[in-house]
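Methods, example record. To illustrate the input and output format used throughout this study, we show the complete record for GNAT family N-acetyltransferase. The sequence lines were provided to the predictor; the line carrying C-alpha cells was produced by it.
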Amino acid sequence: MSEAHHAAMVPLRWRTDVKARPVRCDPPAGDRTDQLVTRPSAGGRLGRVSTDALSIEPLTIPALIDGPDAGPFREMTELRNDIEASIVGSRDLAVSAAGLLPEYQDAWIDKQVHVARLGDRMVGRVFVELAQEEGARTALVEVEVLPEFRGHGVGSALLAHGEAIAAAAERPVIEAYILHTLGDPAAERVHATTGFGDVPADDPGVRFLTARGWTLEQIYRMSRLDLDDGARRLDALSAEAVAASSVGYDLVTWIGATPDEYLDDLAVLNARMSTDAPQGGLEIDEEVWTAQRVADLDARTLRGGYLFLSTAARQRETGRLVAFSNMYVDADRTRPAQQGDSLVLREHRGHRLGLLVKTGLHRLLAEESPQTRVAYTFNAEENRPMLAINEALGFVPAGYQGVWKRP
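The corresponding predicted structure is encoded as:
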C-alpha cells in the first residue's frame, strides 16, 4: 500500500503521492546544458508565431528568492501556476516562488527546467529529471505551455529539447507525469494500459502525447477533501484503525524535521517508495536513500516555509518504523494542504496501518493548522487499498495525472 505524487507540484517528493515523486514538479537547471539551447532558424513559422522570436534556454536557479537574479524564477513560478490553473480550474495547486525554490536545490537528483520565450514573454517550460543512481536508465521529460500558445509548435520544440538532454545523458527510457482534466465521462476516453482509469481524449495533454505515439501506462487520481466534511468521519475511522493495529504497532507523530532516531527507518521507507508503489508498465530506477538524504529533504521542505507533518507506525517487537505518511502545509495556512508520501511496507500489510497513519495525520493537521480547510492527494487508480482509505476520509475526484511513456 503506497501513495505518491505529482510532477508539477512541490515539494518534488509529493510526486510520490502520485508517484511522483507530486506533484514530485519543478527543478533546477544551471548552465550545464547551454549547448542544447534551441534557436529556431530564421524565416520558419509555427502557426502564427514567428520562429525568429522563439528561444529555449535553461533557467538560472537563484540562491535566494529575494536575490537580484530571482526575477526569471518568479516568472517561471507564475507560468507554472497559470498552466495548472487552466487544467484543474482553480489555483488550489499554486505554489509560491519561495516555497518552490528549495526543490530546485536538491543535490540528490539532477533536475532541470528550461523555458521557452516568444520575444520577452515566457510561454512554456520543459522539466527534465535524471536520477543519479548508478545504472539509471530513465528520464522524466515534462512539457507545459500556456493555453493561448498551444498549437504553434512551442510544445514540440520543448519536447525535442528535453529529449535531447535525455539522449545526452544516455537515458533510453523517457516518461512523463502530466495533469489532465476530469472531462466528460460519457465522451471518448483514453485508457491506461494497467486497465485502471482513463482520461478524456480531447484533453490537450492527451492529444499532444498520443499524436507522438506515447503510451498511457498509468493514471493517478487527484482527489480533494473538504476537511470540515472529513472531520465528521475521523473519530470512527481512527477508532477502527487503532483497534485493528493495537496488537503489535503504535502510532508516532512529529512536526518538522525527522527525529534522529527515525532517520534510518525513513531512509528505508523512502527507498521502498520506488519499489513498492504501483508502477504499471513503467520502468522505475530504484532509489538509494540514506539518513542524510532524508535530513536534506526535510531541510529543503522547511526552507520553503512549509509546516511539515509526519506520522508513522512503529512495530513494538523491533522498534522499527514500518509505515509512514506525511503532509505539507503552505506558509499561508489557509492554502490547501498537500498529502506527501504514504507507504506500508509489504511485509506489514493487513493490519490497517495505512488507515492508522492517515487518520493520525489528519488529526495532527487539525491540531496544528485548524485554518487549513482543504487537502489534496494523488493515488494510482489500481491502488485500491489506499484509494479506499482516502474515499472513507471523504476525498472526491478532482482531476487526473497520466503517467506516459515514450515509444
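Annotations derived from this record:
The two ends are 29 Å apart (CA to CA).
Residues 227-245 form the longest helix (19 residues).
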